[in-house]
Amino acid sequence: MTAPTLPGHPFIAYHDGALRVEGVRLAQLANEFGTPLFVYSKASMLAALAAYQRGFAGRNAQICYAMKANSSLAVLQLFARAGCGFDIVSGGELQRVIAAGGEPARVIFSGVGKTAAEMRQALQAGIGCFNVESEAELEVLSGVATAMGLRAPVSIRVNPNVDPQTHPYISTGLKGNKFGVAHERTLATYQRAAALPGLRVIGIDCHIGSQITQEAPYLDAMERVLDLVEAVEAAGIALEHIDFGGGLGIEYQRTDTPPPADGLWARLLARLDARGFGQRKLMIEPGRSLVGNAGLCVTEVLYLKPGEQKNFCIVDAAMNDLPRPAMYQAFHAIVPVQPRANAPVSPYEVVGPVCESGDWIGHDRDLAVQPGDRLAVLSAGAYCMSMASNYNTRGRAAEVLVDGDRTTLIRRRETIEDQLRCEQPLG
Ligand code: LLP
C-alpha cells in the first residue's frame, strides 16, 4: 500500500506501506533507538531555510534562527553552517550557540528579563545586538556595559499593537502583552537610549506572535514599524537595521494555510521598497517555520482502553515530551508508522501515561491500531523537545537526525542517573 505524501511534510512519506523520513524507515529507527523518539529531516530544515534565503536574495538580510523552537546542538550546527545567526533568550542559549560553532557576532538577544550576568556574558562574547524590551532594561544594560568599558549594541523591541490572529498564549504584539515598548513610548525610549553612555543604538525590532498564517498582520506591523523608523530618524537617531521578528506559521492540519516564506517576503519587500527602506539591513527571527514540520515523534501504543463514552489509545509519549496539546490545545496529526491494511478504524483519544487529565496528544482520532503499533506525531520539530520536561520523572526522549539514508543519534535518551545528578539526598 502506498499512501500519498503527507501535506506540509515533503520529506516524510509512505513507501511500500512503511512511513519514512527521507530514506529511513521509522519502524527501523524505533527498533534501534526505542520510543518515544524524535526524528528530524535535515533536508526539510534546509528546504525551509532555502525558502527564506530565496525570499531575501539580493538583499542585505540576516536570518537569525529563533533557537528556542529547537535548540539541540546538531540542529544549531546545521543552521550555523548554512550561514544563519541566532535569536537567543538566555545565557544558556548563547552557550549552546558557541558550542555549536555559531558566530556570536550574528547573535541577537531577545527577552524581557535579561539578568545583569547574562548581559555581561553576552557582551564578553561580542554578540551582535541586544533587543531591549523596556526602559529599565536600557539603564541596567548601559551600566553593565560601562563597567566593562564597552558600549552595548541595542535595538528596541517595539510593540506595534497588531493582532496576529493566533492563540492568545503565543500572540505577543498586542498592547496587553508583556513584550516590547509601547508604540507611543518608542521615540522617548530611543532618546533615552541614545543618551546613555554604555549603549550604541543600531536597530529596531518587533515580533508580533507565533503560528501566524496570514499576511495582513505582518503588513500592518511593518507599516507601523516603518512609521516609527521615520519618527526616530527624524529625531536624529540613525537605525542601521530593521528586525521583523519571526512568527510565520506551519501547516499542522489542512486548514492551516500559511503563505510560503518567499511569497510572504516578496510582498513585504515590495512594501519596504515602496517606502524607501528596501536597501536597509534586514533581520528576521524565524523559529517554528524552519524546524516544525521537519520533525516528528514516534511513539508506541501501550494499551487500548475502550470506554462507554470514549476509547483511549494510551501511548508511551506524553505531555512531558509533547507539551503543545496540553498547553495550547494544539493539533498535531497522528499517523501510523506501518498502516494496517484494510483494518477497521475507531475514534480514539490518544493519551500519554502522565497522571493528568490534561495529558492528551490528540482528540477523536480515527485509527486502526493494536498495542505494540507505532504512531508518528507530526509537526513535532518545533517547541516539543525544547519544551520537554521530566514531569513524572520521565527521562526526555532521544533525538535522531536523518540525512538521506544516513541516521545520526543527536541526543541519547535521558537516564535516571542524568535526572538525579543535580540532587543531593539528605544525609
Ligand atoms: N523572536 C521572538 C522575540 C520570539 O519571542 C519568538 C517566539 C520568535 C522570534 C520565534 O517565533 P516563531 O517563528 O517560532 O513563531 N511555544 C509556543 C510558541 C512560543 C513562541 C515564543 N516566541 C508554541 O509551541 O506554539
Determine the CATH superfamily of the largest domain. Alanine racemase
Which consecutive residue ranges, at least 5 long each, have pLDDT under 50? none
What is the mean predicted local confidence, pLDDT? 95
Listed once per kind, the bound small molecules are:
ligand LLP
Which structural category do the helix and sheet elements fall into?
Answer: alpha/beta
Number of helices: 12
CATH architecture of the largest domain: Alpha-Beta Barrel
How many domains in all?
Answer: 2
CATH fold-type name of the largest domain = TIM Barrel
What value does the Rg take, in angstroms?
23 Å
The helix content, as a percent range, equals 25-40%
Major beta sheet summary:
9 strands, mixed
Highest CATH level, the class of the largest domain = Alpha Beta
**Strand residues, percent:** 15-25%
Kindly, what is the distance between the CA atoms of the first and last residues, rounded to a whole number of angstroms?
Answer: 61 Å
What do these coordinates show?
The structure is a single chain. The chain has 427 residues and is α/β, with parallel strands linked by helices. The chain has 2 domains: 12-41 and 292-420, Lyase, Ornithine Decarboxylase, Chain A, domain 1; 110-286, TIM Barrel (Alpha-Beta Barrel), CATH 3.20.20. The chain is 28% helix and 24% strand. It has 12 helices and 21 strands. The strands form 3 sheets. Strands 4, 14, 15, 16, 17, 18, 19, 20 and 21 form a 9-stranded mixed beta sheet that branches. Helix 4 links the parallel strand 6 (85-88) and strand 7. It is globular and about 70 Å long. It starts with 11 loop residues before the first strand and ends in a 7-residue tail after the last helix. The structure holds ligand LLP. The site of ligand LLP has 20 residues, from helix 10 and helix 11.
